[in-house]
Specification:
8 helices, single chain, alpha/beta, about 200 residues
C-alpha cells in the first residue's frame, strides 16, 4: 500500500482553531506518518539527511500549513530549500523523488470566492500555488490539487468537523490505494474528490 508522509508546519498552532480541529481527527494508520516541523525544528536546523531518508520511504507527501501571505510559513520554505537539494531531487542525477506525489492541505481566512480573477485576491488559488507546483514537477513528482479549508474565521463547529472528517478520509483513502494521483488530477480541489461519510 502507498505510504503517506504528512509534513505539518504551523508556527502558531495554539491560535489556530481550524488546524487543531483537523489534527484531532488525524487518522491513526500504519501507512500514514505525521511530522510537526515546528515541533521538530524550532531552531530551523533541519536534519536534511533524515528528511531525505523519510521522503524516499514514502510514496505521497502532504504539505499541511496555513496559507500565509499567499505562500507557506518560513520553516516549510526552509525545508523545501534544503531537503529538495540539487543533484538529489532535481538537476543532473537528481531523481530520488521521481514518481512520488505531492499535495497541499491549506487553511485560509478568505472564502473560496475571494480566490478568483474577480474576487478580493484577484487570482485563483491555483495561480498562487504555481511556484509550489513547479517545484514538485521540477523534481519529477506528481502534483495533486490541494485540499483547502476556506473562510476559517466564519466556520462553525459542525463545518470544521466536516472538514476534519473529509481530510481524514482523504488521507486514509490515499494510504489504502483507493484514491490515486491519476484519479484526482483534474479536480479543482481535493475537497471535491470524495463523498463525505462517517469514518
Amino acid at each position: 500500500m502507498p505510504k503517506v508522509l504528512v509534513l505539518f508546519a504551523h508556527p502558531r498552532l495554539e491560535k489556530s482553531r481550524t488546524n487543531k480541529a483537523l489534527l484531532r481527527r488525524f487518522p491513526k494508520h500504519k501507512d500514514i506518518t505525521f511530522r510537526d516541523l515546528y515541533e521538530l525544528y524550532p531552531d530551523f536546523n533541519i536534519d536534511v539527511r533524515k528528511e531525505q531518508a523519510l521522503l524516499t520511504g514514502h510514496d505521497i507527501v502532504v504539505w499541511h500549513h496555513p496559507f500565509y501571505w499567499y505562500s507557506a510559513p518560513p520553516l516549510l520554505k526552509q525545508w523545501i530549500d534544503l531537503v529538495l537539494a540539487f543533484g538529489w531531487a532535481y538537476g543532473p542525477g537528481g531523481t530520488a523523488l521521481k514518481g512520488m506525489s505531492v499535495f497541499q492541505v491549506l487553511t485560509t481566512g478568505g472564502p473560496q470566492q475571494a480566490y478568483s480573477s474577480e474576487g478580493f485576491h484577484g487570482s485563483t488559488m491555483h495561480e498562487f500555488l504555481r511556484p509550489m507546483q513547479r517545484t514538485v514537477t521540477l523534481c519529477g513528482m506528481n502534483w495533486i490539487p490541494p485540499f483547502v479549508v476556506h473562510g476559517t474565521h466564519q466556520l462553525g463547529d459542525a463545518e470544521l468537523e466536516r472538514s476534519a472528517e473529509h481530510y481524514a478520509l482523504l488521507l486514509t483513502s490515499f494510504a489504502e490505494g483507493r484514491t490515486t494521483a491519476e484519479q484526482v488530477a483534474e479536480k479543482a480541489y481535493l475537497n471535491d474528490a470524495l463523498p463525505l461519510r462517517t469514518i
